[in-house]
C-alpha cells in the first residue's frame, strides 16, 4: 500500500546535482553538508559505493556513527521501489540524503528509467522536508546521463556553490528518448485473452499458467498476475469495461500488454506518485510499477496500452 502523505514543515526542500571529479572533491562537497545536517538535528542517509563510504568513515571519524550508510549497489536496485523507499525514509522527519546511483553497466531502457527517477523525485518528495544531494562522478558517469542531470535537478552545484539550473524541466514535461515512439511489436508466439468484469478470475488463471509454463519463479508469477489484474480491473471500472491482454516471452522474461479503447490517461505521471490515502483510483499503475521490472504506456489510435515486463528470475 502507498504511504500516507507526510506533513510539510514549511521548509523548502532541495534537490541538487553535484558533479565531482576526484575522491578529494567528493569529500570536500559531502563532508561539510553532512556535518551541518547532523548539527541541525537532521537524519542523514548516505548511499554510495563502498569505497566512498570508507573515505567518509575516515574523514568523519566518530561522527559516522550518526550517519545511516548504505551500499548504492543494493539501494538503487529498481527505480520505482527506490523512489518509494526514499519517500518512506524521509516521511515525518527532516532528512539529508546523499545519493550516488550506479550509472555504469546499464542498458538504454534502464538508464532512461533511472533518469526518470531523478526527475520524478522532485514531485514524489515535494511534501517531505528532504535535501537530496545527487553526486555524479564525471570520470565514469556516461555523457548522456550528465546532460540530463541539469534537466532533472532544480539546482546544480558549481564553482560558486548551488545555483538554479537553467535547463531544469518539470517531471510532467520531461520527454526522454523512446517515450513517444511506438512500442515494438512482439516477436514469436503471442497468447491473446479478452477480458470483461465476469472474466477476471479466468484472466488471472491464464496469466499465472502462462508465466509458470515460461519458467517464472512463483513469487514473480504472483506479482505479475496481481499487476495484470489491477490494470484490467481499472479498465473495467474506469474505462470501457473490457479489454485485451497479449502475452509473449522476450529474452529472459515475460511481457503482458493490457489494452483497451479508453484513450489517454489524464495523469501526467501515471503510477509514479503514490495516490492520496483517501483516493479510490491510481493504485493499479502504482502497484504495477512497484512489482514489475518495467511498465510502458502508450495512447495512440484511440487505444491505451499498458505493457508490463517481468523477468523469470529475481
Structure, described:
The chain has 314 residues and is α/β, with parallel strands linked by helices. The protein has two domains: 14-173, 3-Layer(aba) Sandwich (Rossmann fold), CATH 3.40.50; 191-311, Heat Shock Protein 90 (2-Layer Sandwich). The chain has nine helices and twelve strands. It has helices at residues 23-39, 50-60, 72-75, 79-90, 108-124, 143-152, 200-213, 218-238, 283-291; strands at residues 14-20, 43-48, 68-71, 95-99, 130-137, 155-158, 161-164, 191-196, 242-250, 253-260, 294-300, 303-311. The strands form two sheets. It has a seven-stranded mixed sheet with strand order 3-2-4-5-1-6-7, sandwiched between helices. Strands 8-9-10-12-11 form a five-stranded antiparallel sheet, with helices on one face. The longest helix has 21 residues, at 218-238. The model is unreliable at 1-10 (pLDDT under 50).
Quick recap of the structure?
Helix content is 37%, strand content 25%. It has 314 residues and is α/β, with parallel strands linked by helices.
Key words describing this protein structure:
314 residues, alpha/beta, Rossmann fold, Heat Shock Protein 90, 5-stranded antiparallel beta sheet, disordered N terminus
Amino acid at each position: 500500500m502507498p504511504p500516507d502523505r507526510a506533513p510539510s514543515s514549511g521548509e523548502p526542500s532541495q534537490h541538487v546535482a553535484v558533479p565531482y571529479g576526484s575522491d578529494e572533491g567528493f569529500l570536500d562537497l559531502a563532508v561539510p553538508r553532512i556535518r551541518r545536517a547532523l548539527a541541525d538535528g537532521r537524519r542523514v542517509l548516505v548511499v554510495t559505493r563502498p569505497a566512498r563510504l570508507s573515505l567518509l568513515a575516515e574523514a568523519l571519524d566518530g561522527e559516522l556513527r550518526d550517519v545511516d550508510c548504505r551500499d548504492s549497489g543494493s539501494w538503487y536496485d529498481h527505480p520505482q521501489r527506490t523512489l518509494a523507499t526514499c519517500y518512506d525514509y524521509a516521511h515525518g522527519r527532516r532528512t539529508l540524503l546523499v545519493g550516488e546511483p550506479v550509472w555504469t553497466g546499464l542498458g538504454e531502457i534502464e538508464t532512461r528509467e533511472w533518469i526518470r527517477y531523478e526527475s520524478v523525485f522532485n514531485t514524489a518528495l515535494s511534501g517531505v522536508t528532504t535535501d537530496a544531494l545527487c553526486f555524479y562522478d564525471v570520470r565514469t558517469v556516461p555523457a548522456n546521463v550528465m546532460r540530463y542531470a541539469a534537466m532533472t535537478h532544480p539546482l546544480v552545484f558549481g564553482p560558486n556553490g548551488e545555483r538554479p539550473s537553467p535547463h531544469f524541466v518539470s517531471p510532467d514535461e520531461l520527454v526522454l528518448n523512446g517515450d513517444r515512439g511506438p512500442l515494438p511489436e512482439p516477436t514469436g508466439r503471442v497468447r491473446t485473452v479478452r477480458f470483461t468484469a465476469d472474466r477476471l478470475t479466468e484472466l488471472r488463471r491464464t496469466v499465472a499458467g502462462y508465466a509458470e509454463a515460461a519458467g517464472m519463479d512463483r513469487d514473480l508469477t504472483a506479482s505479475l498476475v496481481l499487476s495484470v489484474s489491477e490494470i484490467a480491473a481499472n479498465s473495467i471500472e474506469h474505462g470501457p469495461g473490457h479489454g485485451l491482454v497479449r502475452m509473449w516471452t522476450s529474452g529472459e522474461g515475460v511481457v503482458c500488454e493490457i489494452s483497451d479503447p479508453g484513450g489517454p490517461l489524464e495523469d501526467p505521471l501515471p503510477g509514479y506518485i503514490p495516490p492520496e490515502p483517501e483516493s479510490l483510483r491510481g493504485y493499479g499503475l502504482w502497484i504495477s510499477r512497484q512489482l514489475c521490472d518495467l511498465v510502458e504506456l502508450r495512447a495512440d489510435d484511440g487505444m491505451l496500452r499498458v505493457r508490463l515486463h517481468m523477468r523469470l528470475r529475481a
